[in-house]
Amino acid sequence: MRVVVCKTFFNGLSYYRAEEPARAVVEAGIGVEVVVVPGLATTMSTGPDPVVLDVDDQGADVVVMQLPKTVEMLQCLRILQARGTAVVVEVDDLLHGASYGLVGHLMAQVGASQRVLECAREADLVTVTTPVLLKEYARHGRGAVVPNAVPRRVAELTPAYERQPDRVVLGWTGNVLGHPYDLQEMGSGLQQALDATAGGSEFVVLGQRWDAAERLGLRAEPREVPWENAVDDYLALVGDTLDIGLAPLRVDRFNTAKSWLKVLEYAARGVFAVRSPITEYDRLGLGYRARAARDWAKALTRAVQDPGWRVEQARAAREVVLEQHLVEHRVPQWVGAWEQAAAHRAEARGKAAVTIG
Fold first, then answer.
1. Of 7, 60, 90, 169, whose CB has the highest number of CB atoms within 10 Å?
2. Domain boundaries, the chain
3. pLDDT tens readout for residues 221-237
4. Cα–chain-centroid distance for residue 269?
5. What CATH number is given for 152-324 in this structure?
6. Assign residue 234 a region: left if phi > 0, alpha if psi is -120 to 50, beta otherwise?
7. Which pTM does this prediction carry?
8. Half-sphere exposure of 240 (CA within 13 A, CB side)
9. 78 burial via Cβ count (<10 Å: 0-12, 13-18, 19+)
């Protein structure tokens, strides 16, 4: 079987849901050829409203479209299926459920989230990261949950817990403007913990802090560590910088559908995590569950003051990642999904031939 994966331009998404799965499948040596491409070559009509006339499938049995959000991608899907090529739509976020201020909300405003839904409805199979997304994007019953995982090379980097820091670093990763509601879930818990451990801890934002201090009611600006665009470099930096990782998420429709990725990254790098009671974080079962400000304050304070406990928790979480959540563990699920898509396309084509005959 030959699979062509058309990846998105979003770095993290293409890394976890296209490039790394493709690499793992090829390295497994099971006779499945996977090629990752930045786009599909098409032939367009001329005129004021051009449409796709043909698309180069590169000899694929299955074409995977990651986050297809244009009318042209829907046209490509239909052409490929008419030719007998199966199409899988890969989605990692509930774009039509995004709150105001999120990137997904902007996509909804320009109609992109609707195009993703349309492509998913016509796909031979939809792959997603969570059961909630499966219900939203695969209501036709043709879908598969393939949870996020990390590459072995990342999980085998020197873990953060092997350090003995003079000052324990509590950190959050991301762009504050891209998460306008999440940090506030900690309430006063972070400042309480910083007060209780003054002189022995500091708060860092790995990414863009913007107005994080104001949002959290902090008495001092957090230190900002510049983001690394290459995902491998970013993941290395997480473990090299943080001792305790924060994963606050507002409980809303968009976040409830989200993957467990941030906590998984912390765990893989040996960083003790404190996180919100989000469905997928609970399903993963890693990290300290914090619902209210007092929970955040209690967990963070103890993690700073009791390094033995912090290290024990972080080490156990990393072992779970090594045993259950590496990209190589997902190979049967990825291949199984692609095979299901191919089988559906063959069945649909067979039915069409009988009807015509």
1. 90
2. 2-149+328-356, 152-324
3. 999 999 999 999 999 99
4. 16
5. 3.40.50.2000
6. alpha
7. 0.96
8. 10
9. middle
